[in-house]
Design goal:
Length: about 260
């Protein structure tokens, strides 16, 4: 088969290091009957070893040339190729207890992670390769400079673990950054949840919009009605100092005060 030229617009960097591939497959540890969806299979570096462990795999691929290549390489009874942008895919169509894996294009990693949150109830776990600095933000704890809007939003829905780093030379072409692997497991239904997801998103986005400022300044017109003491939040704290649970309680308090709409 002819050599595929990596396409910049799709953020393509193909994994070529077999020892890294083996480590990822070992981390996922798929069982024969698992429902696995691979995002961005590319040149099938992960696809092939996953299929050795699975009865069937679904692959979501945006590049039509690569999608055609995959259909030629693998029997459709083993591999279903969904030719689409993962950002537009309804993941509920694949059933429940999904195990989602992929070397995610770095140029759409955050939007894709937020898109997948919509389908978290259908997911058992997710294993992704991403830029290391993105994963460091995903797993960061309050008080750390890496703690961000991404940290709060994802930690409100998943338990996450950074597994290991992947050097640039494991890819062709090599990216300019170090990558890493993250495991994401959706939190159970009994987790602490905001009364309004929309209000929670609004509060977190506003808090981190000026992360160097004190919360009482960033929240401005809302600040006088925030029950700071009851929430155990200092008005002089900055966005990165507040835990996920406190953000949930803060947004609930603002909904209760009528400053934000539920919904």
């Amino acid at each position: 088969m002819s050599q595929h030229q990596a396409r910049k617009r799709f953020g393509q960097n193909f994994l070529t290091d077999e020892s890294v591939v083996e480590s990822i497959v070992r981390a996922v540890d798929p069982a024969r009957g698992d429902t696995v969806v691979e995002i961005g299979p590319g040149l099938s570096a992960l696809t092939r070893p996953l299929l050795e462990r699975l009865d069937h795999l679904t692959a979501v691929e945006i590049d039509r040339d690569l999608a055609a290549r995959l259909r030629k390489q693998f029997d459709e009874s083993r591999l279903t190729v969904v030719e689409a942008d993962a950002l537009t895919v309804d993941f509920s169509q694949f059933g429940g207890a999904l195990r989602v894996v992929g070397n995610l294009p770095y140029n759409i990693s955050s939007p894709l992670l937020f898109h997948l949150m919509t389908w978290a109830d259908h997911v058992r776990d997710q294993h992704f390769m991403l830029q290391r600095e993105v994963i460091d933000r995903m797993v960061a704890q309050p008080g750390s400079g890496d703690f961000s809007r991404l940290s709060v939003m994802l930690q409100s829905r998943y338990r996450m673990h950074k597994l290991f780093d992947v050097p640039p030379e494991a890819f062709d072409p090599p990216p300019k950054v170090v990558s890493a692997i993250v495991r994401m497991v959706p939190l159970p239904a009994e987790r602490l949840r905001p009364v309004s997801e929309r209000a929670f998103e609004t509060v977190v986005a506003r808090a981190f919009s000026q992360r160097r400022k004190m919360l009482r300044r960033v929240l401005a017109d809302w600040a006088p009605q925030v029950p700071w003491e009851a929430l155990d939040i200092l008005p002089t704290a900055r966005a990165e100092d507040i835990s996920v649970d406190r953000y949930i309680r803060l947004s609930d308090a603002l909904v209760e005060a009528g400053l934000l709409q539920a919904g």
